From TrEMBL:
Belongs to the glycogen phosphorylase family. The lineage of its organism: Bacteria, Bacillati, Bacillota, Bacilli, Bacillales. This is Alpha-1,4 glucan phosphorylase. GO terms for molecular function: glycogen phosphorylase activity; pyridoxal phosphate binding. Pfam families: Phosphorylase. Its cofactor is pyridoxal 5'-phosphate. Keywords: Allosteric enzyme, Carbohydrate metabolism, Cytoplasm, Glycosyltransferase, Pyridoxal phosphate, Transferase. CDD domains: GT35_Glycogen_Phosphorylase. It catalyses: [(1->4)-alpha-D-glucosyl](n) + phosphate = [(1->4)-alpha-D-glucosyl](n-1) + alpha-D-glucose 1-phosphate.
Length: 810
């Protein structure tokens, strides 16, 4: 890309400020500057975007399409500047013009088109695909409302709509000429043609227009710009000449109709890993896959002079969790009904095109749909799924006698429900889990019958994160220090961070890492002061748990420990402890009662602990509201401890753990998800592992033998904390936290909070001691950074590319 200097960029900003906004710099707002800078970046990008698309059109390359209901991309200005090689120049230019870069970047509203890890993974993958020169694109939905904005009012979570498009979004381009029609409902009519084959005709369908908005995905200093295509649902406007409406009755009917169509891309479902069986959600899923598959086939025909029977040579489609698995019957439908394929030929093509990523084994998150709803909303798709199911079940009956008794656990349609994971497995050539332990649990437990049927389909791809956003952009001080120490090659080859190991015992050098961490902690302390009016001690341990609020993630274990520490300080006010700041960020699904109770509890404990003079600033509890990508970028560089304390076997991978490791935080975690792979690399001596193992947890679930009440009765520390909840010590009303109390004692603590309490306490004691030994601590921290290159999504995407997608760099 063109190399702008600070001076030319400044001049360009000033020139555009006048031409676009009619203002001089002294009258300009941060927002003016944001738009002007975005527009300059866009000009840089557009040229490369055009060129990249042109290259892909020559038809030589196999391309991957990543279908996902969620893309949690966050802000784009700084990351686009970074990838264009302009970030430092731009920051300098902004400062010279009298603006703080962070103020300009934060004018952009986070694009929160995702809930958490799954959506953020999709965003990291796009960044890596482009940065590695892979021809790979995302397809998603342009929700008008993203994930709700969280406010904390009197300790409670309050949800506000996230109308992120209120101001123009500078990164998107509407592409009306690529719009396609999607059909819902209606009747399917079957005709026998002369040659004996069947023809299908759909009548009385509800038609919706899908209009794409394209967002450029800029590769890191490599001139590749891929595309994230987000579909928007619109009414198909019939041109009836004068366009006048005949009667007001019809006018209102039309408005209703328009509203119901626009609802399809209206809002992101805010349920994290469990889903409400809402027809609208099913509509959204079909809307995404039908528009994307139509578009993919159109481009295949334009770019490749090959018959559709050879689609799999040039196209591979990754489906991110089961949400887009209707893409499988949708491709079958188009191949058979529009392109004249026989069932067998269509099936041969389809099952060589799709690959499926599983993200969870939580049973409440395994998606199923009512057969009836599916049949009504998507009659032709239902027929095809039914046929897939028939053939699949027959195959088992005749070829796998050993599985006959398990047919209802394998069938795509069983007991009146369509099972999306089963559809995805049967229709894909690859099924992958997202961390080693997760894939093993899929093979040995959750999907063992499918693994018996299709051992060759199953494979592991451990998640990753883009080190460009999560280190270079979020923590430039650390990135610069690393480059000072080991040179700049790690930026293109993150595994070279391993060269840092040589220096992890050099005390003069690790002091510099300490300084960077300290400066980052100061910045976060300022943010906390600004937003909550609370002063935190920058020399205290910043102990961070940031992630969606879920019982299995066990924020409850964390806050129970805080209550325990508080009790200890009340009993022994002169106890000498290392000051601690516990930092939380978490959204709860609006309908998840218990999760919201935990948020309330954290805030209530905070309001007591933070203002108790006996505590004397040795303990602070901070809940930062509205956790999202931009807030994560602020917190992570300042973290000393990364809390990854899920009930073992429950967290498929986790990616927050990787982000914090890469920023020098030490993991306090269970042997779960990718924590295990972090442990493989850094060992016991460089992280704090505690608690039940996955095998132990699974054994308890299967055979019983755990009695939470026994722990309550025998461990005074536990009894005291629970009684405090029950007796209203933390809360205005004494019934406030009774549900938490009951869940633990009467539902036998389903996530083993009490069981892991003591080992968790002990791990915290080790942390306290380790933190006092500065050199050891810093050595551990640098060791973690050194090994974190393995968790760059560049590595993950490279593995997908060679082992699943079989695509090559352009
Ligand atoms: C990385 C990330 C997540 C995932 O965090 P986990 O700790 O893996 O659950 C969720 N939300 C945001 C905003 C993130 O950046």
């Amino acid at each position: 890309m063109t190399q702008l200097t600070v001076d030319t960029l400044k001049q360009e900003i000033l020139r555009k400020l006048i031409s676009d906004k009619g203002r001089e710099v002294k009258e300009a707002t941060s927002k003016d500057i944001y738009y002007v800078l975005a527009s300059i970046v866009n000009e840089e990008i557009k040229q490369q975007w055009f060129q990249t698309r042109k290259n892909y059109r020559d038809g030589k390359n196999k391309e991957v399409y990543y279908l996902s209901m969620e893309f949690l991309i966050g802000r784009m200005l700084a990351s686009n500047l970074l990838n264009c090689g302009m970030l430092d120049t731009a920051k300098e230019a902004l400062r010279e013009l009298g603006f703080e870069p962070e103020d300009i970047f934060s004018e952009e509203h986070d694009a929160a088109l995702g809930n958490g890890g799954l959506g953020r993974l999709a965003a990291c993958f796009l960044d890596s695909l482009a940065s590695l020169n892979f021809p790979g694109h995302g397809y998603g939905i342009r929700y008008r409302y993203g994930l709700f904005e969280q406010r904390i009012i009197h300790g409670n979570q309050v949800e506000l709509p996230d109308y992120w498009l209120k101001n123009p979004y500078p990164w998107e381009t509407r592409n009306e000429e690529e719009a396609v029609v999607i059909q819902f409902h209606g009747d399917v009519h079957m005709f026998k043609k002369n040659d004996g084959s069947l023809e299908f005709e759909y009548r009385n369908t509800d038609k919706v227009m899908a209009v794409p908005y394209d967002i450029p995905i800029v590769g890191y200093e490599n001139d590749t710009v891929n595309t994230l295509r987000l579909w928007s649902a619109e009414v198909i406007h019939q041109n009836n000449g004068d366009g006048l409406l005949e009667a007001s009755k019809e006018y209102y009917h039309d408005l209703d109709h328009q509203h119901s169509i626009e609802q399809i891309s209206g809002f992101l479902y805010p349920d994290d890993s469990s889903y409400e069986g809402k027809e609208l959600r099913l509509k959204q899923q079909y809307f995404l896959v039908s528009s994307s598959i139509q578009n993919i086939l159109k481009h295949f025909k334009q770019n490749h002079h090959l018959p559709l029977s050879r689609l799999a040579e040039k196209v591979v489609i990754q489906i991110n969790d089961t949400h887009p698995s209707l893409a499988i019957p949708e491709l079958m439908r188009i191949l058979m009904d529009d392109e004249g394929f026989s069932w067998d030929n269509a099936w041969a093509v389809t099952t060589n095109v799709f690959a499926y990523t599983n993200h969870t084994t939580l049973s409440e998150a395994l998606e199923t749909w009512s057969e009836e709803m599916m049949q009504n909303l998507l009659p032709r798709i239902y027929m095809i799924i039914d046929e897939i199911n028939e053939r699949f079940c027959k195959g088992i009956w005749f070829d796998h006698e050993e599985l006959r008794d398990s047919i209802s656990e394998l069938a795509v349609i069983a007991h009146g429900r369509v099972h999306m994971a089963r559809l995805a497995i049967v229709g894909s050539f690859s099924v992958n889990g997202v961390a080693r332990i997760h894939t093993e649990i899929l093979k040995k437990k959750e999907m063992r019958n499918f693994y018996t049927l299709y051992p060759e389909k199953f494979n592991n791809k451990t998640n990753g994160i883009t080190h460009r956003r999560w280190l270079l952009q979020a923590n430039p001080k650390l990135a610069d220090l690393i480059t000072d120490v080991i040179g700049p090659q790690w930026v293109k080859r993150p595994k070279q961070l391993i060269s840092l190991l040589k220096y992890s015992n050099d005390s003069a050098l690790v002091d510099k890492f300490d300084q960077v961490k300290h400066e980052n902690k100061k910045v976060l302390a300022n943010y906390i002061h600004q937003h909550l009016g609370i002063t935190v001690d920058e020399r205290s341990i910043f102990d961070v748990q940031i992630k969606r609020l879920h019982e299995y993630k066990r924020q409850l274990l964390n806050i129970f420990h805080v209550i325990y520490l508080y009790n200890e300080l009340k009993d022994n006010p002169n106890q000498d402890i290392t000051p601690r700041t516990f930092i939380f960020g978490a959204k709860a699904a609006p309908s998840y009662h218990l999760a919201k109770e935990v948020i309330k509890l954290i805030n209530t404990v905070a309001s007591i602990v933070n203002y108790d003079p006996d505590v004397r600033d040795r303990l602070k509890v901070i809940f930062l509201e509205n956790y999202n990508v931009s807030l994560a970028e602020k917190i992570i560089p300042a973290a000393d401890i990364s809390e990854q304390i899920s009930t073992a076997s429950k967290e498929a991978s986790g990616t927050g753990n990787m982000k914090m490791m890469m920023n020098g935080a030490l993991t306090l975690g269970t042997m779960d998800g990718a924590n295990i792979e972090i442990h493989d690399l850094v060992g016991d001596q460089n992280m704090f592992i505690f608690g039940l193992t996955a095998d132990e947890v699974l054994h308890y679930y299967q055979h019983g033998g755990y009695h939470a009440r026994d722990l309550y009765n025998t461990d005074d520390r536990i009894k005291r904390v629970l009684d405090q909840l029950n007796q209203g010590e933390f809360g205005v009303h004494n019934i406030e936290f009774k549900d938490i109390y009951y869940n633990i004692l009467y539902h036998n603590d389903p996530y083993f909070v009490l069981k892991d309490f003591e080992p968790y306490l002990e791990a915290h004691e080790l942390i306290e001691r380790a933190y006092r030994n500065r050199n050891t601590w810093l050595n551990m921290s640098v060791t973690n950074i050194a090994y974190s290159g393995k968790f760059s999504s560049d590595q993950t995407v490279q593995e997908y590319a060679t082992e699943i997608w079989k695509i090559k760099k352009v």
